[in-house]
Design a protein that fits this description.
The protein contains 22 helices and 14 strands. The chain has 536 residues and is α/β, with parallel strands linked by helices.
């Protein structure tokens, strides 16, 4: 499903083309984007006339949930709005973030068939692509003038500047939520059946895993349930294991007594690996945890196979979320009740959120067709606006929701019929902005939200967190972070499956710090933290 590349206009120089395109882009982006197209509003009104731009074919590669699917072009009012508003033919390719996603984008880049824009999933923020000279310089494309909504509502200029690598402007962070919702979820109905309480300590948690595995919590007379599961995707061990927190670590990085701590490579990982090995050997963990690919682990939880999983979104187990773990589980087990918890009391679950994965543009497209980069930037900025946010998160005004001032009232029946039941497809289009309507000062009323949902929200808000580190950390020039992390994951998997303990972690860690230059990486991070005035 690829659009044929458009033959670009001949111009005197690429620089001249960039200047022309960006001038037009900047002029349009300064205007308020309140004039929605008929597709956006759901009305038959004609949108205000705007200067017609040359029609472009654009290809994007983005992430999408495993069970989501875009509808036909006829039913896709988001795509229709974008194509009409920006005079483009937009082809969107989407996959679940993970190794398969990485492999596909790498294959496209190798074949010189790069998308015009993609979201990075390598875990290094695109730094390897930057080192390889694949990325476009976006210093003239992504600016407060060309993306006023992006910089006003989501990413300030200081954060954007601190996010750059190799001394160049090569990447831009996807808008991200600063709200923290990470917690473990447990089958409360299973606990009730076994006369157990929600665990408040790690030892209580272990006893619950044993009971869920051995004491028939679902009452079917079979030994077919497990305590905990995760999805390592055949690559490392993942970061969901409570054993990290048992040993004093916090997701994902933090300052401890003025020292930068990386959860994944700290010396305490030795004991983490010991503890994980023990629970795996005891048989209280889903035996498929290593090969599970998200969302297979939550699918198993919904199927009644496991009783504890990690969730990271506010509505992970909401009644009002038709795709939540709670909703899916109740479809099979009407009395199911997933509740969030932490077995570590006042110990923080995670630190404040830093900018995550970026959106990227290939150098080849920027040099040959800079107008494609500029047009994609225009569209992304519109997605960052209130108008774009409402359309991609809730649907069409007066059809899927009503708006009274800053209050949005959802229409659940229409949303279910037009969106949820047809592939839950807005969960693909909302890729660019998190579910934080408060950014625009909006209050969203969902008539389907239950008292149970509100209680979950209160519980999540009560779970302790550590402060945001305070600055974006950039690997030193030439450092291959993707290779470093890949080797780290290989060694940790080896510790579990071959060593069956963390006994060799000190040697593995030494390899990472020397052969893979981890010492230089963390020294660079320490200098950046010091330069930011966060430690003396």
């Amino acid at each position: 499903m690829r659009a044929k590349p458009m033959t670009h206009l001949k111009v005197l120089t690429t620089a001249a083309m960039v200047a022309t395109v960006l001038s037009a882009c900047g002029a349009d982006s300064d205007k308020p984007s309140s004039q929605a197209s008929p597709a956006a509003t759901g009305s038959g009104a004609t949108a205000s006339a705007q200067p017609q731009k040359e029609k472009l074919n654009l290809k994007w590669f983005i992430e999408g949930p495993a069970n989501a699917k875009l509808p036909s072009d006829q039913e896709d009012f988001v795509k229709k709005t974008i194509e009409e508003k920006f005079n483009v033919k937009l082809t969107v390719d989407y996959m679940v973030l993970g190794q398969d996603y990485i492999n596909k984008i790498n294959a496209q880049l190798t074949a010189n068939d790069a998308p015009d824009m993609w979201r990075d999933a390598n875990g290094d923020g695109g730094q390897k692509y930057a080192l390889d000279g694949i990325l476009a310089d976006i210093s003239k494309f992504v600016t407060p003038q060309t993306m006023p909504n992006y910089f006003k509502y989501w990413v300030d200029e200081k954060t954007f500047a601190g996010y750059q690598v190799q001394g160049k402007t090569l990447r831009a962070p996807i808008p991200y939520s600063k709200e923290l919702y990470r917690a473990w979820y447990i089958r409360k109905d299973w606990l009730d059946k076994l006369n157990l309480q929600v665990p408040k300590t790690y030892e209580e948690y272990l006893n619950v895993l044993r009971a869920f595995t051995n004491n028939d919590p679902d009452g079917n007379g079979k030994k077919d349930t497990y305590g905990f599961t995760t999805a390592a995707g055949g690559d490392g061990i993942g970061l969901d294991w409570p054993e990290y927190w048992k040993n004093g670590l916090i997701y994902a990085t933090f300052l401890e007594n003025g020292k930068f701590i990386d959860m994944q490579t700290d010396s305490r990982v030795e004991q983490v690996l010991n503890d994980i090995s023990k629970v795996v050997a005891e048989g209280v963990v889903d035996p498929d945890w290593f090969l599970n690919k998200a969302p297979q682990h939550t699918d198993k939880a919904a199927q009644g196979k496991v009783g504890v999983v990690l969730g990271a979104t506010k509505d992970f187990a909401f009644d009002s979320n038709p795709q939540s773990l709670q909703t899916k589980t109740k479809a099979l087990f009407p009395n199911a009740n997933w509740v969030p918890f932490t077995p570590f009391g006042s110990h923080p679950i995670q630190s404040g959120i830093a900018p995550g994965s970026p959106f990227l543009f290939p150098k080849s497209v920027a040099e040959k067709n800079p107008e494609k980069v500029a047009r994609s930037v225009e569209i992304l900025d519109w997605l960052s606006s209130e108008e774009g946010y409402l359309l991609t998160h809730y649907g069409q005004e007066n059809k899927h929701y009503t708006k009274n001032g800053k209050t949005i009232t959802l229409k659940p029946e229409a949303i279910t019929a037009d969106i949820t039941n047809k592939g839950d497809w807005l969960t693909i289009w909302d890729f660019f902005t998190p579910a934080t309507p408060n950014v625009f000062g909006l209050t969203v009323i969902d008539p389907t939200q239950t008292e149970r949902d509100r209680q979950i929200e209160k519980t999540l808000a009560s779970i302790p967190s550590a402060p945001y580190l305070g600055t974006s950390l950039i690997a030193p020039t030439g450092f291959d972070l993707a290779t470093f992390r890949k080797r780290q994951r290989e060694l940790q998997a080896k510790a579990i499956f071959e060593d069956k303990s963390g006994k060799n972690w000190p040697a593995y860690r030494e390899e990472l710090m020397t052969k893979y230059n981890g010492t230089k990486l963390f020294e660079a991070y320490a200098e950046q933290i010091k330069a930011a005035g966060l430690v003396k």
